[in-house]
Specification:
- The relative contact order is 0.13.
- Helices cover about 45% and strands about 20% of the residues.
- The protein is of the alpha/beta class.
- The N and C termini lie far apart (about 60 Å).
- It has helices spanning about 10-20, 30-35, 40-50, 55-60, 65-80, 95-120, 135-140, 140-150, 165-170, 220, 235-245, 260-270, 280-285, 315-330, and strands at about 85, 90, 125-135, 155-160, 180-185, 190-200, 200-205, 225-230, 255, 270-275, 290-295, 300-310.
Length: about 350
Amino acid sequence: MTLPIGSDESPESSRAATLVRPRESALSPALLARVFHQPSLIYFNAVAQYLSVRETARRLNVASSAVTRQISGLEDALGMELFQREGRRIKLSPAGEILFRHARRLVAPLEAAVSELDMLRGLRTGTVRVAAAESVGLSFLPRLIDDFGQRYPRLRLDVSVTSSADVIDRIADEQADIGLGFIAGRLRGIEVAVRRDVRIGAVMRPDHPLATAPTVTLAACLASNIAVGKPEISIREVIEPFLQRTTTAPPPFVEVDSIRMLVELALIGHHVSIMTPIGAHSEIQRGELVFRSLDEPGLPTNRFGLMVRAAGNLQFAPAVFYEHARQHFETLELPGAV
């Protein structure tokens, strides 16, 4: 049974949607081709993106009932449900996930054409989807965004702060144009435009006893109060073997799932946080924290990168942001950079 996707609509439109059932079999290929050239695909893409009929109607400047009719007609033509209800929210069905993945590729050339026409007209409009690791979002990304906005005020930035692994997944799945994060292992289908290898070390206040020590080791940090990231933070995978070989018993440390929490614990003064300097870039610049590289034989660097899809043929707005970010990172001075 088709679930009424208009869960945020009026009761009348919801009841109307429940009367429509997807047919048991799809229309012929010729008829389906005509359906896909109708507004229904545009409406479907928008609902799949916003997961809200009301928000889709607002963005497209149409009535919510019009959105519901288009989606119901598309479901009926395909003979499959495209959305499912979860309480008061909606989500893509398995069939909807497949259609959305391919529909985005169909719409992309049209969006590229519009961007180029806008550029020709001098409007320079467009949207850049940026995915960034938390440490980047806490440090130099705000300055980069501000500089970019001053130079290109008509270009819109859609920024997601997430894990480095999710940054890579979003680029690969074409959900982001530009990625800023840490790289672990080989990447398939992704190009690293700018790469900076950064040392892993200890972040602490200048008055912490280890701040003036000749060398800083994990053993010395473990003798103090130490804070480390949980396994979902990329740096933990790098330092885990060194933590395990430093002590035979489970080491006493604080585990957090936030780079910002590591910085705050270091700022209070009682903890040493194991991280790269990127997440504490601003505090280090202001002299509130210091970064000391860990003296551990065999400890690798953490690789930071500006990433795009390989041969992705960036549209106008993402291409402009990419060039702006590339120049920014090539000249940026980072403590601990190799």
